[in-house]
Design brief:
The protein has about 350 residues and is of the alpha/beta class. The protein has 14 helices and nine strands. The two termini are about 15 Å apart. The structure holds coproporphyrinogen I. This is Uroporphyrinogen decarboxylase.
Length: about 350
């Protein structure tokens, strides 16, 4: 079979070594990225297929990673569906009129494929340029996107989001259904254009208790994941070790694990699932020998799962030295995998 290591590992097949890529590999830690982005606002760069192709290719060229991830952002489909959202430098996504009640829901209309023609065009260009390297498409999960919509921007405690969830559950579920529909159609556009694997980022789900997750969030993530089962699906959260089985049950082929839980323990919690992770992005600032030991440990612990995709436990930090990431790739590439 000619399937990529990434797809084989995602399907829980034993591979000669783990495939490796990094969340946020395309972006701020690369000097060539900062150069291309000079003077171009973030969301504008996401809408220009030539820039998307170039920025997506940069880490593939530099590191020789086993997968590309589309250069985009989780708020791109919201913007394309008519929400007034910007990405402010040094802040993140900022929503001009936050969603606070039933009357605001009308503003969340469905996303038509024609709204994101720039994504289709960029992916066609990428598939041609990438050759045998697979492309990962992605979207924000309904809860993480809803947090930006309700809070109006980045939030530490997600207090308005939780207040809405508990005080007005009907409004909450309608909000998440609408966001899930946008997310699902955004992912379908990426699959139709040629993405080989998709990742659903629920970066802020770790703010929730297991029962909140089960009741208010999981059904909506499950509806997104059920609709896109034609490609392997990675489901990732940060601080979600306590409800990893629910994230698997929501419809993941691969469960993303942050650095808090060793992969062999994660494998016990979600038996039969492939795993992705889980080097602490902060460890990349430690001495070289420390990084080497951590990489080897994670490769070894990953053998407890039927398939393992080597990654960080969350995104590359902006001030990471690209040479350290290059060395991690080299070391994973030299490792023996789960075969035999
Ligand atoms: O000017 C800049 O360079 C802006 C920085 C930046 C970049 C490079 C933002 C703003 N988004 C991105 C690209 C991006 N966003 C990618 C690119 C592909 C890759 O991984 O290489 C991806 C996958 C995302 C996804 C994303 N955006 C997530 C989920 C992943 C994660 O790290 O948890 C989240 C939460 C966002 C929101 C967002 N966008 C940008 C920032 C600074 C943030 C976080 C703000 C916050 O703290 O809430």
């Amino acid at each position: 079979m000619n399937e990529s290591l990434l797809v084989r590992a995602s399907r829980g097949q034993r591979t000669e070594r783990p495939p490796v890529w990094f969340m946020r590999q395309a972006g701020r830690s690369l000097p060539e990225y900062r150069k291309v982005r000079e003077g171009v606002p973030m969301l504008e760069s996401c809408q220009r297929p030539d820039m998307v192709v170039e920025i997506t290719m940069q880490p593939v060229r530099r590191y020789g990673v086993d997968a590309a991830i589309l250069f985009s952002d989780i708020v791109v489909p919201l913007k394309a569906a008519g929400i007034d959202v910007e990405i402010q430098p040094g802040v993140g996504p900022v929503v001009a009129s936050p969603v606070r009640g039933a009357a605001d829901l009308e503003r969340l209309r469905p996303l038509e494929p024609g709204d994101v023609g720039f994504i289709t065009e960029a992916i066609h260009g990428l598939v041609a340029e990438l050759g045998s390297t697979p492309l990962i498409g992605f979207a924000g999960a309904p809860f993480t996107l809803a947090s930006y919509l309700v809070e109006g921007g980045p939030s530490r405690h997600h207090e308005r989001t939780k207040a809405l969830m508990h005080s007005e559950p009907a409004v909450w579920h309608e909000l998440l259904s609408r966001v899930a529909a946008i997310t699902a159609s955004f992912l379908q556009v990426q699959i139709d254009a040629g993405a080989s694997v998709i990742q659903l980022f629920d970066s802020w789900a770790g703010a929730l208790s297991e029962s909140e997750y089960r009741r208010y969030v999981m059904p909506h993530s499950a509806s997104v994941l059920a609709g896109i089962a034609s490609v392997p699906r990675i489901h990732f959260g940060v601080g979600t070790s306590e409800f990893l089985p629910l994230m698997a049950e929501a419809g993941a082929d691969v469960v993303g694990v942050d650095w808090r839980l060793p992969l062999d323990e994660a494998a016990r919690r979600v038996p039969g699932k492939a795993l992705q992770g889980n080097l602490d992005p902060a460890i990349l600032f430690a001495d070289r020998a420390v990084v080497d030991v951590e990489v080897d440990r994670i490769v070894a612990e990953g053998r407890a799962a039927p398939g393992h995709i080597f990654n960080l436990g969350h995104g590359v930090l902006p001030s990471t030295d690209p040479d350290v990431l290059a060395r991690v790739v080299e070391r994973v590439h030299a490792a023996g995998g789960t075969e035999g």
